[in-house]
Amino acid sequence: MSSSMRLADLAVAAAIPAPATPSEAASTAWPSDPMNSLTVGEAMHRLARELYPLRRSLTGDGFRETVGRVGQLIPLTVTETRTGTQVFDWTVPQEWNIREAWVANAQGKRVIDLEYSTLHVVQYSVPVRQRMSLAALRPHLHTLPDHPDWVPYRTSYYHETWGFCLSQRTLDALPDGEYDVCIDSTLAPGNLTYAECELPGDDPQEVLLSCHSCHPALANDNLSGIALAVAVTRALLQRTRRRWTYRVLFIPGTIGSITWLARNTAAARRVQHGLVLACAGDRGKLTYKRSRRGNAAIDRAVEQVFRHAGAPYEILDFSPYGYDERQYCSPGFDMPVGCFMRTPNGRYPEYHTSADNLEFITPAHLGDSFARLMDVVQVLEGDRMYASNNPYCEPQLGTRGLYRTTGGTHVPGYEMAMLWVLNQSDGSRSLLDIAERAALPFALIRRAADDLLAAGLIREADA
Ligand code: ZN
After folding, report:
1. How far apart are CA 330 and CA 310, in angstroms?
2. Statement to judge: residues 46 and 136 lie in one domain
3. What is the CATH number of the domain that holds 261?
4. Alpha carbon of 131 to ligand 1 centroid (Å)
């Protein structure tokens, strides 16, 4: 049976975009300017498209191929952890690999087939090869009656079973009768894979960026986070100097972060700022979920950036649900790690369905998430404490030419930013403190501080 015939047979096929061809591979198409959010957004979308059809799961070759592709864009170290390894209260599970999964009718026509979408099989399904009636098959079929054209995403990592996911419309069209069922999978001792990129900085203390990379064809919940992590890493790679050491993790959700933490407790202690990246490409507004601490520097940095970004946004308090921040913020670690998103998990109907596809994420929104995240990086890199060299009354700015250092164009708030930095720089307040108190964008405060440093009016006080 040709694949084009089978495509025509399935109602769901129209919802599944064709995979990228090798010539569209993102590795050859990343823009030369890694800071241009428009072209970077397009490259992020191409990467999501390239990764979309891979058979990713919690473990297995689909995950390896995903980090292999990412590894063509940024330097990665891949770590394998054996099945059965104890990681805190958890055990590394068996490795799952899938070759074929289909249901065929009495005429031999495949009515459900993994070839069209990796969502069609319940993740971690055990092998099956059986002929059975539709009635016997039904308990193994998962649909979304409220969204009859969508295919759900289902997993069964910790309970051995098998099943298929399909649209309600496809199910409704299946006549009673006998069906051949095939799941050619392996669930056996192997490894759990994760990958990380370490970018050394002046300070061995770290900034952690983490994204779950274990979902199959789900664009916003998974691929957007991977694409955002790649984009930021590529931008950081271009810097001749980084203040912080950056560690970027591509891990299977929950068990991946638990495994990484179990193997890297020393590195975890070095993390000064951290973000989980997820759901970063949809058309919704930017959302930030605070760390467990609630007022960590990362919480304040993200809120500062969102406040001055000129677009609607939402700040959520920490809750012990969601993504891998649950593990990073468990009380034994209590790392300053928040979650950077657009529309959060579970807050959009397309979540965990085939409708979270490549049309659900846009290059523009991916690019916007990238630009705002780079603003956050600028705050983390640029937040320092200064002391005034001229603390007795205001220094004269005009005679030092400081009112004119903006290149002849008037920048709103620039003079106020200088006055605030001069007034607050007593060696106990950081530029982020000052930006918050002055209600001015951090970038403006940073620029004023740079000019005051150049004029010798302030000195570093936190070195
Ligand atoms: Zn998910």
Report:
1. 33
2. no
3. 3.40.630.10
4. 32
Ligand 1 centroid – CA 17 distance (Å):
20
239 with 289, same domain: the answer is yes
How much is the pLDDT for 407? 56
Instruction: Output the CA 380–ligand 1 centroid distance in Å.
Output: 28
Residue 13, pLDDT score: 36
Considering the domain architecture, whether residues 212 and 355 belong to the same structural domain is answered as yes
Containing structural domain, residue 292? 3-92+192-381
One domain, residues 110 and 246: no
Q: How far is the centre of ligand 1, averaged over its atoms, from the C-alpha of 444 (Å)?
A: 37
Cβ–Cβ under 8 Å, residues 106 and 131: no
* Cα–ligand 1 centroid distance for 231 (angstroms): 21
Q: Print pLDDT tens along the chain (463 aa).
A: 333 333 333 333 333 444 444 444 445 578 888 889 889 999 999 999 999 999 999 999 999 999 999 999 999 999 999 999 999 999 999 999 999 999 999 999 999 999 999 999 999 999 999 999 999 999 999 999 999 999 999 999 989 999 999 999 999 999 999 999 999 999 999 999 999 999 999 999 999 999 999 999 999 999 999 999 999 999 999 999 999 999 999 999 999 999 999 999 999 999 999 999 999 999 999 999 999 999 999 999 999 999 999 999 999 999 999 999 999 999 999 999 999 999 999 999 999 999 999 999 999 999 999 999 999 999 999 999 999 999 999 999 888 888 755 555 677 789 999 999 999 999 999 999 999 999 999 999 999 999 999 999 999 998 6
CA distances 375 to 304, 370, 381, 383, 461, Å, are 10, 9, 10, 12, 23
- Supply 153's token pair: 């995403």
DSSP per-residue letters across 376-432: HHHHHHH--EEEES--SSPPPSTTTTGGGTTTTSPPTTHHHHHHHHHHH-EEEEEHH
For residues 273 and 207, membership in a common domain is answered with yes
Question: Is 153 found in the same domain as 23?
Answer: no
Q: pTM for the full model?
A: 0.93
C-alpha 222 – ligand 1 centre gap (Å): 7
**431/297 Cα distance (integer angstroms):** 12
Q: How far is the CA of 38 from the centre of ligand 1 (A)?
A: 27
For residue 347, the CA-to-ligand 1 centroid distance in Å is 12
CATH number at residue 167: 3.50.30.90
191-199 and 77-82 as β-strands: parallel, antiparallel, unpaired? antiparallel
Instruction: Check if the beta carbon of residue 267 is closer than 8 Å to that of residue 249.
Output: no
Same domain flag for 370 and 439: no
